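Dear U.,

For the methods section draft, I wanted the exact inputs and outputs in one place so we can describe them consistently. I've listed the two proteins in the order they'll appear in the manuscript figures. Please don't edit the token lines directly; just add comments below if something needs changing.

First protein:
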Amino acid sequence: MSHIPHLINGERVAGNGRSAPVFNPSTGDSTAAVGLADRATMQLAIDAAKAAFPAWRNTPPAKRAQIMFRFKQLLEQNENEIAALISAEHGKTIEDAIGELKRGIENVEFACAAPEILKGEYSRNVGPNIDAWSDLQPIGVVAGITPFNFPAMVPLWMYPLAIVCGNCFILKPSERDPSSTLFIAELLNQAGLPKGVLNVVNGDKDAVDALIEAPEVKALSFVGSTPIAEYIYSEGTKRGKRVQALGGAKNHAVLMPDADLDNAVSALMGAAYGSCGERCMAISVAVCVGDQIADALVEKIVPQIQALKIGAGTSCGLDMGPLVTAAARDKVKGYIDAGVAQGAKLVVDGRDLVVAGNENGFFVGGTLFDRVTPEMTIYTDEIFGPVLCIVRVGSLEEAMQLINDHEYGNGTCIFTRDGEAARLFCDEIEVGMVGVNVPLPVPVSYHSFGGWKRSLFGDLHAYGPDGVRFYTRKKAITQRWPARKSHEAAQFAFPSNG
């Protein structure tokens, strides 16, 4: 069995002591062991990043960008190998893994614009012989804690931008599928990144707490569940750190009576069942305005759910692979059990799916509930599995109230041909990312990603312009060069241009 190491100061470092198994979700077999860092190992990474920071912060942004250009090229050249690593440990299909990587590469492309995005602002003659400007300066040593469901994309949301802004980075990836994350980080070193600027340390809560408590770590980025997001935000800010912590979601799709139903069904299939529902932007609730559209949705979507091609993620041409772990599979099945017990109508049941040749894999088939009500746990909780719930309402206003009353506010969408309804929805819905006839409204890399309410803790969203703001501090400088041989009396009133 292989052992997955840490990457510290440009070198692979074996773990000391504790480790955790890494599984192939398609077969159920343990394929590797990953070291779980202790405090001493984490401190090695912190010390390496701290030592690398002075030289890196003084490296010209254009030179930092050149490294990112080479990194982008290496990512593209190694696309197939990265996708295979993702699929082997996460379970998502090869096509889905390639799509994930491509969205990550978009963020590297944004980081390549470092000389432009780090330009300050300049004003000449704000007063007599006085010029003023602002400067975006790096924070220092920063860290990211990333989830299992996007082992390539979410880290690429964070460290390329943090690094081109002049910071040094410590990444704590998920211990469930660490191989692709480590491989990608080593590609950045191959691109010419100096030692210590990026460090990857595998671990569990002990590693997270070490980052939270380390005074050298000035900022923390996190993507994961809401309880952990809230914990990291609370503990990090209490210690004076800058924190952005993205949490859970319960994303609703509203289907209006005038929706283009064929296209809406296709969109829902991908948004609900793609990546086995293990996406924070997955659509897990279809809110149908009126029984007519609900009945039509059920009629059209059931055959497509039953026709899903499900199998080992490492195979091509599939729609869906397994869930990431046996515990995740059992949790999803438990939610389906609860939905039945609480009175929802189980239209398609995925609990008994068996994939021939992969009988021990962590599979759950596409599942559909109808007549779901807001007090049911399949409605209130983030299931993170291939389960779609249909809720029936009488009006758009009722649909919007339902969404606005939910504790999460990550993503939502509306399917309609009515511009007035779409505009009302966009204006009044209390959700951070909104789609109109777009089921997964994930912003492109030059915008920013983040939800509202208990889906985000912190003031700044991830990547894009908010990412630049998060990973830099603005310094305002006012400079005066008085004329030679001139002398002015002391001025005791507060200075102004009035």
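Second protein (the one for the lower panel):
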Amino acid sequence: MAKRTNKFLYPNSLCFPVGGGIEKDETAEAAAKREMKEEIGIIFPIIKIFGLEFDSKEIYRKITLFITKKEIKISGLKPDPDEIQYLKEFTIEEIKQMIKEIPEDWASTAIATFNEFLGKSE
């Protein structure tokens, strides 16, 4: 997971380390790969898991979650300092507990995506 910088929308919040908008004439997969290169400095092969719509009083987003089966060493990533304060690995159980105890530390889109992921994987 990543700690965002003081950027617009969810400043200083925990979230997935790669994310962003789709540019005109770009597919969700192409956007994910572009964002990977921009935000962590490397592109991995990805697999689409699901899409969801997120609607709150703050924002409306269509979210697509991709994963990789490639083993990733966090030390090999180069987070963009304009986007990410730091990266840290957590287990699924640790994330569940952290969201339960201090949900305000998390971007609401990350919570919604994580909960959808849990529902799909159970």
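Candidate sentences for the figure legend, describing the second protein: The CA atoms of residues 33 and 43 lie 6 Å apart. DSSP finds three helices and five strands in the chain.

Thanks,
Y.
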